[in-house]
Amino acid sequence: MGSPNTSILSEALGWLDEGREVALATVVQTWGSAPQPVGSQLLIDSDGNFLGSVSGGCVEGAVIAEAGEVMASGEAKLLEFGVEDETAWQVGLACGGTIRVYVEPLKAH
Amino acid sequence: MQRQVVEQLMSDRAERRPAAVLTWLASGEQRIIHAEDIAAMPELGEGLTEALRLDRSRVLEGADGDVFVHVFNPPLRMVVVGAVHTAQFLVPMATLADYDVTIIDPRTAFASEERFPNVNLVTEWPDQALAEFGLDTRTAFLALTHDPKIDDPALGVALASEAFYIGALGSKRTHAKRVERLVAQGISEQAIGRIHAPIGLNIGAVGPVEIAMSIMAEVTAVLRGKSGSGP
User: How many residue contacts between A and B have a Cβ separation below 8 Å?
Assistant: First the structure.
């Protein structure tokens, strides 16, 4: 896997420069067969545009929805998705893993 | 996360300086740290050192709850002294494994674009070339020429550096002679002990392709905190 790519963060700076409201989601823990390694990041703006990945498609929808709230409130959130979790199945993390995703606002100042 | 944290990470990367962002998951408190800051954080110290060394982001238990350590290490590099046949097979393997590869060989017949397309080729003497290169903790160094005139001075520079891996091609007997020469140059035996020789994991490699595989396997093992075959 190597180092996390800083290209997502570099894109984030570009989005901030354009005056967009931005949140950053990061995989902080995984158990079982998680599709993306710890450190993977997803960049989201308030219009629902996104870049990167935290699960290869399984939970992105739910993370993007939560990111909207994070941007509105300015408060970070720690999300957990797993097979035991009904929501996780609904969002499609049926691959047998559990992941924790930290979603935080990216502040310009 | 503050914009200035992201900007700091970008400049650290440009300077090839390892960094980590620590996030206290309960409070959202965040700070960026570098190797020299670890000593001042005893409760996380060992875990932080290991996370940076193994390039493995992870959650650590701190006094104030869980801390996410997000490691931002500079990209990996590999410096190969010797534009030899084995290197021709090693370059594509290392490139696939995300290394930025540089080949150094003053012999232009060996170090030709035709033999080494799409790679940084430096046709200077390695001690000159390496003086400017800056071998660091994210760089693997390999001496593959078999020629003491080229390998020895290059190894001298590598042993004075923080390169995470130093390997030299040659049999046990060749290496024993090399050790004698390096000692005669005033290099300490402890420093010389960093050289992995004979280079590569012992997988019974036959021919340049398999030797390249065994070298790549050993470099990976050392990068990931396994012992490799020696020293």
Answer: 65
